Amino acid sequence: MLSRIRPPLSLLLLSPALAAAGLTGPSNYWECVLYGMEDVKNDQVAREIMKICLADFPDDLSVEEPLEGTPTECILKYGEDVSSAFAAQQIQTACNVLYSRP
Question: Which of 47, 55, 77, 92 would suit a FRET pair with 83, their CA atoms being 20 to 30 Å apart?
Answer without folding.
Answer: 55
